[in-house]
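re the bet — no i am not wrong, look at it urself. input seq straight from the record:
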Amino acid sequence: MDRPTGGPSSRTALPRLVRPLQEFLSTETAGGVLLLAAAAAALIWANAPLGDSYRDFWGAHVAVELRVVSLDLPLVKWVNDGLMAVFFFVVGLEIKREVLRGELADARRAALPVAAALGGMIVPALIYVAFNAGGDGAHGWGIPMATDIAFAVGVLALLGRRIPLSLKVFLLALAIVDDLGAIAVIAVFYTDDVSFGWLAAAAGVFALVFVLGRMRVRALWAYVAAGAVAWLAVHESGVHATIAGVAMGLLTPIDGTLGSRDAAAGAGGGPVLERLEHLLHPWASYAIVPIFALANAGVSLGGGALRDAASAPVSLGVAAGLVLGKPLGITIASLLAVRIGLATLPRGVSWPQIAGVSMVGGIGFTVSLFISDLAFTSAPLADQAKIGILAGSAAMGAAGFLVLRRVSMASGASNGE
């Protein structure tokens, strides 16, 4: 990240830009610890002597009767379709902030993470297809495309000040572009039969939200109410309901302030987008994503499941996509972008560090699990995909940490530290 120079205005602008980034990275790091604990708890629960209680609990149906529609979903779907809509709302806020005010606002600085993210999505998908083309698991090609921000940032946090801030910013920007790509894939390729009436209703709500923003309406309750209606309309349209959360995040005004009543409720009185992200990001990282992991990571590893997964095209495709596709895609795309003059390496960042971060980018936990739930209705295929996600993500987390640690130690030794 370029260091501002100049007078007092530059010195006061820097904390305003860096503080939200540091707060975001800190929240993601702590959230990664909870996410790991929740995933471990899910695996233990699902493989305990009373492992059937795991599937019975999350499979229990919860019905909600509304005047216009009746929702009868298993508990895991309420988590995946409902709670995760809030998570994707926060993702939408992050994308908008980065595009308008952050690392992606400058085309020159954005070129490298955008190229890296595209390479890190395309190559894993192609590797997965090579394992599964024409087979029952072909629909899961989107699973290894994702990068888990919480786990990835957590790995870098373990290395402390050995990792330059510019490298953390690169990883964050890459992961956010990756999220945007995953959202597009979910919306286009993992959508059921579409009800255009409900979809038109959702579009009408989004148009209303846009108008409210242009009219500088800052009453938080108005956006919450509109978001709830939009979620219902998108859910009933056949498009995955979490897309409503993303759209609401992208439509949230970035400037202006919330009303005094909303500020008193805890949202604060600063710029709308920044205050909502400040309010909701901890909830998403500390509660929603761990609950999602607890509900989805509990795959049974007994009865020969691991042995079968070791030769299953779905497991192999996911694991190879994360272990081989992510590092190759991110590194090669970054190298090409720099070689052709489209981008430059961030200040203080070396190619070995890019290679290490490309391995960390192979941690595809949360969104990969999410896409696997959309891709497969068959329990065996879904379990194979989850085993591939767990194995590939664990391998890339360890490999990325070791490579970055060795690179940072070598760099420190060469600098006389």
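see?? The first strand starts at residue 61 and ends at 65. told u. also The longest helix spans residues 8-47. so pay up
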